[in-house]
Amino acid sequence: MEIQQVLHMNGGIGEKSYANNSLTQKTFLSKSMPQIQEAVVAFCSTLLSECVNIAELGCSSGPNTSIAVSEIMTTIHKSCRKIGRHSPECQVFLNDLPGSDFNAVFRSLPALQEKLKEQNGDEFGPCFIAGVPGSFYGRLFPSASIHFTSPQAVVDAYAAQLQRDFSLFLKSRAAETVGGGRMVLTFKGRRVADPAVDESCLLWDLFAHAFQDLVGGEKMLDSYNSPYHEPYKEEITSEIQKEGSLTLDSLKTIVLPWGGADGSKSGDRATVAQRMAKGMRAVHEPMIQNYFGPDIVDTSFQRLVQVVEDNIKETEHVSHVVSLIRNS
Hints:
It is a single chain. The chain has 328 residues and is α/β, with parallel strands linked by helices. It has eleven helices and seven strands. The protein has a seven-stranded mixed β-sheet, sandwiched between helices. Helix 7 packs across helix 11 (297-310) and helix 10 (269-292) packs antiparallel against helix 11 (297-310). The longest helix has 24 residues, at 269-292. It is globular and about 65 Å long. The N and C termini lie far apart (40 Å).
């Protein structure tokens, strides 16, 4: 089966859904807000038009979908008020793979628009929102049509694929973005060159330990490939320089503790283990179920809770926030 058909988060709003198990992603996104705000203010001072086109790539579903978009539009509105001009219209494109729960996203939009009006007043410009299903490793929009892009997650590839996939991503976004347009990217990443360090691999090692016996042994587990790579910052900057269409404005590294990556207090080991296992399940269950079948899913993730709880090693969670400007 084509990977795009199974590579999506758990939909809905139930206990195992991404919507209810994505606090870690929300925390990283919240920590990246200063760079998003800075990029938007700079954009407003140089390139503001009567209609601003905003793309949110990898929007998934749940409360995180609207965080960056809301902040971008609110910052545009506040910037306009400071310089004494009316707010522009905003056209927002929400993108994810076709298997994502777009119905849940669309159901949340009336409340989002009402909230934006309440927060910003009647002078807040009209906002039009559309869904764009498809892979962001290719073109999604017409040439030179996007002013601001804010993906929640970008590079989900192995190191061997990083150059190809990230370069293709940058080429596609550069073709779609107007000269002087802005893009803020958020990556799970690592701080050292060695890709086998604990901050990249510990949780995956625990995952493998929990699943190995239930999926038919090490050989069967080794044949399962999750398209996931946490890049070193030099890998990111190198590809940006090679591609050449965008200028690196800033790169910030965010670090969160092992047990408090979701913004909560660390808590006891059992609570941390439950949170981590639910977060992994919300993201990876569709692929695991497609590859190994549905029968092992509940038992495997129950076992993962115990493995994480028994683990005495801890590491930190790392994310890179990259702000880019489209060359004119």
